[in-house]
Automatic annotation (TrEMBL):
<dbReference type="Pfam" id="PF01230">
    <property type="entry name" value="HIT"/>
</dbReference>
<feature type="short sequence motif" description="Histidine triad motif">
    <location>
        <begin position="98"/>
        <end position="102"/>
    </location>
</feature>
<dbReference type="GO" id="GO:0003824">
    <property type="term" value="F:catalytic activity"/>
</dbReference>
<feature type="domain" description="HIT">
    <location>
        <begin position="5"/>
        <end position="115"/>
    </location>
</feature>
<dbReference type="InterPro" id="IPR036265">
    <property type="entry name" value="HIT-like_sf"/>
</dbReference>
<dbReference type="InterPro" id="IPR001310">
    <property type="entry name" value="Histidine_triad_HIT"/>
</dbReference>
<dbReference type="InterPro" id="IPR019808">
    <property type="entry name" value="Histidine_triad_CS"/>
</dbReference>
<feature type="active site" description="Tele-AMP-histidine intermediate">
    <location>
        <position position="100"/>
    </location>
</feature>
<dbReference type="GO" id="GO:0009117">
    <property type="term" value="P:nucleotide metabolic process"/>
</dbReference>
<dbReference type="InterPro" id="IPR011146">
    <property type="entry name" value="HIT-like"/>
</dbReference>
<protein>
    <submittedName>
        <fullName>Histidine triad protein</fullName>
    </submittedName>
</protein>
<dbReference type="InterPro" id="IPR039384">
    <property type="entry name" value="HINT"/>
</dbReference>
């Protein structure tokens, strides 16, 4: 895609710090380096976000992630955990609109990275949760 920074990285029009590459997937260091070893994994096919994936593309990309994550873990044995983050659409903090997965090594609770999951369990009754689940399940069936 024209003017896509990640497509330009794949095509070597812009330099990157490559971690992994095969015919379908490219992985490279995020220049922000939220933590040491912060890596982006992208499909070589331009897709905007997860909503543009088909089953094959998802398999191609996500099947490589454990290999890359294990390599990060071996490279940095002091690492105590890893966050895998995939933001989709602007409201969900996607800033580059070529789908990508962040692999963010965690070294301590004092890393400059955080996530917050609010607990709204008290806001939903069992019948509401059942209705939400049924609504989503119906859509899963129609997307097969």
């Amino acid at each position: 895609m024209e003017n896509c920074i990640f497509c330009k990285i794949i095509n070597q029009e812009i330099p990157s710090y490559k971690v992994y590459e095969d015919e379908l997937v490219y992985a490279f260091l995020d220049i922000s380096q939220v933590t040491k070893g912060h890596t982006l994994v992208i499909p070589k096919t331009h897709v905007t976000d997860l909503f543009d994936y088909d089953a094959q593309l998802a398999s191609d990309l996500f099947s490589r992630i454990p290999k890359i994550a294990k390599a990060i873990e071996k490279a940095f044995p002091e690492m105590e955990g890893l966050n895998m983050v995939n933001n989709n659409k602007a409201l969900a903090y996607q800033s580059v609109f070529h789908s990508h997965v962040h692999l963010i090594p965690r070294y301590s609770k004092n890393d400059d990275f955080s996530m917050h999951f609010g607990n709204h369990q008290a806001d939903y009754q069992s019948d509401e949760l059942k209705q939400i689940a049924e609504t989503i399940a119906k859509q899963v069936e129609t997307n097969d």
